[in-house]
Amino acid sequence: MTYGRHGKDISDVGVTNVSTHGFWLLVHERELFLPFEKFPWFKDASIGRLVNVKLLSSEHLYWPDLDVDLELQSILHPDRFPLVSTTIDDQASTAKP
User: Fold this and answer.
1) Do the Cβ atoms of 13 and 25 come closer than 8 Å?
2) Is 64 exposed, middle or buried (0-12, 13-18, 19+ CB in 10 A)?
3) How far separated are the first and last CA of the chain, in Å rounded?
4) What's the distance, CA 67 to chain centroid?
5) Tens of pLDDT along 42-84?
6) Which residues contact 16 (CB under 8 A, 6 or more apart)?
7) Which residues are registered as beta bridge partners of 70?
8) Are 34 and 69 in contact (CB under 8 A)?
9) Please, what is the average pLDDT of the chain?
10) Cα Dmax for the chain
11) Which CATH class is domain 13-94?
């Protein structure tokens, strides 16, 4: 009996390592580092939520458990995409009466 091939053995996207400073993401066979300093949405995420990443298109990454969407270009060139995150608490403390 022989078995046929069913495609590639690897996914197009996946988290390969996590450190206290950030995590490494493999996208299209290219490994990228996302520092928590520049991508704060991931800093307090559990490993399970962090590794649940989907490649919705060739340039669009989505973490459904964290409700985070990123374009690949914002990872490759973060200086071109100023990332600002606010929480509801931040908004309430700066709201004018």
Assistant:
1) yes
2) exposed
3) 76
4) 10
5) 999 999 999 999 999 989 999 999 999 999 999 998 888 775 5
6) 24, 25, 26, 31
7) 61
8) no
9) 82
10) 76
11) alpha beta
Are the CB atoms for 70 and 56 separated by under 8 Å?
no
| Confidence grade of residue 9 (pLDDT, cut at 50, 70, 90) | very low
14 three-state secondary structure: strand
Residue with token string 């490993």: 47
User: Which residue's entry shows tokens 């495609």?
Assistant: 7
Nearest of 39, 36, 94, 37 to residue 72 by alpha carbon:
39
pLDDT at site 67: 95
As given in the structure block, the two tokens for residue 88 are 């509801």
